[in-house]
Write a structure and sequence with these properties.
Blueprint (H helix, E strand, L loop, with lengths): L4 H9 L2 E6 L18 H4 L2 H4 L2 H6 L1 H17 L4 H10 L4 E6 L5 H5 L4 E3 L2 E8 L5 E2 L20 E5 L8 H13 L2 E5 L10 H8 L3 E5 L12 E3 L3 H12 L6
Helix pairs in contact: 6-10, 8-9
The structure holds 2'-O-acetyl adenosine-5-diphosphoribose.
2'-O-acetyl adenosine-5-diphosphoribose binds next to loops.
């Protein structure tokens, strides 16, 4: 892919970068997105599987669905895009990676400053007393674990529809977004708020906003640059184009 001089210049000049990633970031690691034609929400109902009401109605169904996702994620490896972002972080003194993904693949690739807006699939906690559940999970068991302290139902520590995002994490994400000179929006449909507001906040604060996505999104027309390709193909080339020219 050919990048314009303006785009490369903006990345070389910047010292504060914020990045937002969504499910498309992990698509090439074999993890399905949500809203693509073959995405999870094409066949499954998010209200049943990703809401507190759905969990209260059918806790085992929801728990087992997360176990299936745990199995897929356990088999997945970071792709070239994750690796390129970890490399990119080393080029900047101020680099914040904000992710909606729960798969921990950014950390597995070596990214350090990661803000998980929607929690993660590795940790669990008690629905009733909110304490972390620290026992190992048997991903093949269909039985929902209960809290050893209060007997409450155990749930994955992900953010479901209708739930508040972790407020400190959101605050840090908004701060990094407001302060950055370049903001990258990668592999997200920019449909789910408050995460979807971040590219707009960056733009309104004067940042250059670069979108990386093989498809147009509701944000594409607002972006300073749209790189029409996949995360694992575009990011390595992009990082190669700035490495060597960029002094921390
Ligand atoms: P979506 O499934 O809504 O969007 C995925 C985006 O990734 C789409 O715009 C695709 O075009 C793009 N895409 C697909 N393959 C790609 C690739 N290889 N490289 C780059 N982009 C690619 O996923 P999110 O925007 O992450 O929340 O969805 C946001 C939230 O909605 C998720 O965190 C989840 C979901 O419901 C909850 O479960 C609370």
């Amino acid at each position: 892919m050919n990048f314009t001089n303006d785009l490369i210049e903006s990345l070389i000049k910047a010292d504060k970068i914020a990045v937002l990633t969504g499910a498309g970031m992990s698509a090439e690691s074999g993890i399905k997105t949500f809203r693509d034609p073959d995405g999870l929400w094409a066949k499954l109902n998010p209200e049943e599987l990703a809401s507190i009401e759905g969990f209260m109605r059918n806790p085992e169904t929801v728990w087992n669905w997360y176990n299936e996702r745990r199995k897929v994620i356990a088999m997945a490896n970071p792709n070239e895009g994750h690796i390129a972002l970890a490399k990119m972080e080393t080029l900047y003194s101020n680099f914040t990676l904000i992710t909606q993904n729960i798969d921990r693949l950014h950390q597995a690739a070596g990214s350090k400053n990661v803000l998980e807006l929607h929690g993660n699939i590795v940790e669990n906690h008690c629905l009733r007393c909110k304490k972390p559940y620290l026992e190992d999970i048997d991903i093949n068991s269909k039985i929902l674990p209960v809290c050893p302290l209060c007997g409450g139902k155990i749930r994955p520590s992900v953010v479901w529809f209708g739930e508040q995002l972790p407020q400190n994490t959101l605050f840090e994400a908004e701060k990094a977004t407001e302060e950055c000179q370049v903001f990258l929006s990668i592999g997200t449909s920019t449909e789910v708020y408050p995460a979807a507001a971040l590219p707009y906040i960056a733009k309104n604060n004067g940042a250059v906003v670069i979108e990386i996505n093989p498809r147009m999104t509701s944000f594409s027309n607002e972006a300073s640059f749209v790189l029409n390709g996949t995360a694992a193909t575009v990011l390595p080339e992009l990082v190669k184009s700035i490495a060597g020219k960029k002094n921390k």
